[in-house]
Amino acid sequence: MYTGGNGILRSCFDGNLGRWVLLKTLPEKLAKQPKDRRRLMREARVTAQLQHPNTVPVYEMGLDHYGDVYFAMKRIEGENLFEIIRRIARGDEATRAEFNVERMLGTLIQASLALAYAHTHGVIHRDVKPENIIIGTYGEVYLMDWGVAKVRGMAAEGDSEEIDDAALFERLTITGKRPGTPLYMSPEQVAGEEVDERTDIFSMGVVLYEALAAREPFRGRDLEETFDNIRNAKPTPPSEIATQWQVDRELDAICFRALEKDPANRFQSMFEMIRAVRRFRASKVGGDLG
């Protein structure tokens, strides 16, 4: 289903239980590397311990017939938020009608609830972006890919295989089909500083901006300009550039609160940001459905 630099996802059939599952393994070049094997096992344990409706259940972890590490999780039928935003930006009226502002806000509330749950359990995602938000066929929402998460105080999980700041920076800034991840990094990530839960709040603010405006707020001509924008620039409010729908200025304010350069000026918890979006929905679009 997907092949990336750090993992391969396959759709497989579980003959014992009669169900389809998603299997994650390492690419051949990494499959025998002890550190990469331990990191994949760490990702499986982190994901498995996040028992929340908006995270994907992990079924098992083990070794395949080649002796390589794998873990199996629920197979999700659906698409990621980036693909949806891209179709809206291209003028797809059917997608715009299906994913209107209210639906977008509800989707982001659900993804944010997964983050809020993770934060209360000492886990910081560190790679929140539209590609990692999956909308299922029946409207369910999942926040995916906890492979670079920072973990504090989680049972049975030490820090020996946690990706350090330098390695994380390298991984997040490698360009592939779309140089997506750097666009969602917080100023403190760009500066190589210590991060806490508020880095995820900044990244979710970028996702909210993109969902409303159908464009990224900090994209530059190259990585250097993008990082300079993240550190110093204030983007144009979504209400002034959105063409696919009308954006309320109250949503501008929520975006910019999440996008404050200084973490002390942002929402101080994911729950605080969720409450702000819910209050807006309740007052402007006829009720809180998220």
Write the layout of secondary structure elements.
Elements: E1 2-3, E2 8-14, E3 19-25, H1 34-49, E4 58-63, E5 69-74, E6 78-80, H2 81-89, H3 93-98, H4 101-120, E7 123-124, E8 133-136, E9 141-143, E10 150-151, H5 165-173, H6 187-190, H7 198-213, H8 223-232, H9 238-241, H10 249-258, H11 270-284
Antiparallel strand pairs: 1-2, 2-3, 3-5, 4-5, 6-8, 7-10, 8-9
Task: Looking at this protein, list some descriptive labels.
11 helices; Transferase(Phosphotransferase), domain 1; 290 residues; 3-stranded antiparallel β-sheet; 10 strands; alpha+beta; 5-stranded antiparallel β-sheet
Query: What is the percent of helical residues?
Result: 40-55%
Please list the strands of the largest sheet in the order they lie side by side: 1-2-3-5-4
- Structural class per helix/strand content? alpha+beta
- Mean pLDDT, all residues: 88
Largest sheet: 5 strands, antiparallel
Listing every helix as H and every strand as E from the N terminus to the C terminus, the arrangement reads: EEEHEEEHHHEEEEHHHHHHH
The domain tally reads 2
Overview of the structural elements:
The chain has helices at residues 34-49, 81-89, 93-98, 101-120, 165-173, 187-190, 198-213, 223-232, 238-241, 249-258, 270-284, and strands at residues 2-3, 8-14, 19-25, 58-63, 69-74, 78-80, 123-124, 133-136, 141-143, 150-151. It folds into 2 domains: 2-74, 2-Layer Sandwich (Phosphorylase Kinase, domain 1), CATH 3.30.200; 78-284, Transferase(Phosphotransferase), domain 1 (Orthogonal Bundle). Residues 154-159 and 175-180 have low confidence and may be disordered. A hairpin with a 5-residue loop joins β4 and β5. By secondary structure, the chain is α+β, with helices and mostly antiparallel strands. The longest helix has 20 residues, at 101-120. α4 (101-120) runs antiparallel to α7, α7 (198-213) packs antiparallel against α10 (249-258) and α10 packs antiparallel against α11 (270-284). It is built from 11 helices and 10 strands. The two termini are 30 Å apart.
